[in-house]
Amino acid sequence: MQTKEKPLMVTKPLTPAPEHVAARIAEVTASGQLTNNGPQHQKLEAELAAYLGVKDLTLFANGTLALILGLKALGLKGEVITTPFTFPATVQAIEWAGLTPVFADVDPVTFNLDPAKIEAKITEKTSAIVPVHVYGNPCDTAAITAIARDHDLRVAYDGAHAFGMTIDGRPSGSFGDLTMFSFHATKLFHTVEGGALSFNRPGLKTTADQLKNFGLAAPEQVAMSGMNAKMNDVQAAFGREVLPLVAAERAERQRIKAIYDEFFAGVRGIRTITAREGEAASYQYYVIEIGGSFGVSRDELQRELEAEQIFTRKYFYPVCTAFPWYEGKPGTRTADVPAAAAAAEQVLALPFYGAMTDADAKRVAEAIRRRQ
């Protein structure tokens, strides 16, 4: 039955004060440089590198383009081992980079790429591993690093959910050869649309900067085949107003998380996937797993919550091996990734953003507990 309650969405973008945005945009127009590495772009790049604790960082128009060109910058060929439990953009970026994705199964606890399943997928065609920090749960970076070292493979992390997260006290962008961050409006930090790469190998930033700007090494020197993937100064200006809001937003999301955690503690059939706290957490999403011992299925719960104006998301669904263009080809069979397939049928991302009140969070939690 429909209710008159206010709708609660999965997330709500951080929106700076209009007057602050207007003042920043006025700086852009006054500079006369709207794109092509203008003043706002340069300042945001430096501010984000400092915030994320990385030395080399470059901005892109969106995270998908960032990952495509990051893979290009690594000079990869052949096959890339990745996770089937991710947003389609991860796999699409691999394909657009001219590479073949090969799927290894995920750890059934973290839903991240399972290192124990990676080595069996390595062939003479394998050139890299592309793991995803799912929901801000960190991958087993130590194990992945060891595998990559033993087999001379590159590692490019999809850190779309990992903004501001630390792993064993280290910034998430300090692992692997590079990490991609997404700055889409749904993310904790955003530039409306946007993305970035952080690098841990000398020379990669220079290559990526050229790739995203038509391959230009100088105004009259085309050094490589690139594309136009630059972030413009309007996006960067907006992001510079969002960045100072992130610390307060993280604190507010921690408050909402604590309410959810208390309500779901001991509820049979519900497991909280995003369990990390403090600086080790990204606070990007609050995701639960609906097990068979819960009162209703995941899909039934989602429909019933929507009737109460509580909107959730099956994040991620479907599993990537179910994409029709794979059709069970070797390396892409869903039957070979049972943990990922099971996760895709059980996860649910709940409303989670700082503007939620305690009453909002309790309303969501109580609506779920009533179904147990």
TrEMBL record:
InterPro entries with a match to the protein in the record: DegT/StrS_aminotransferase, PyrdxlP-dep_Trfase, PyrdxlP-dep_Trfase_major, PyrdxlP-dep_Trfase_small
GO annotation (BP), single: polysaccharide biosynthetic process
Active site feature: K187
Keyword field contains Cell wall biogenesis/degradation: no
Modified residues (N6-(pyridoxal phosphate)lysine): K187
Region forming the signal peptide: none
Protein name: dTDP-4-amino-4,6-dideoxygalactose transaminase
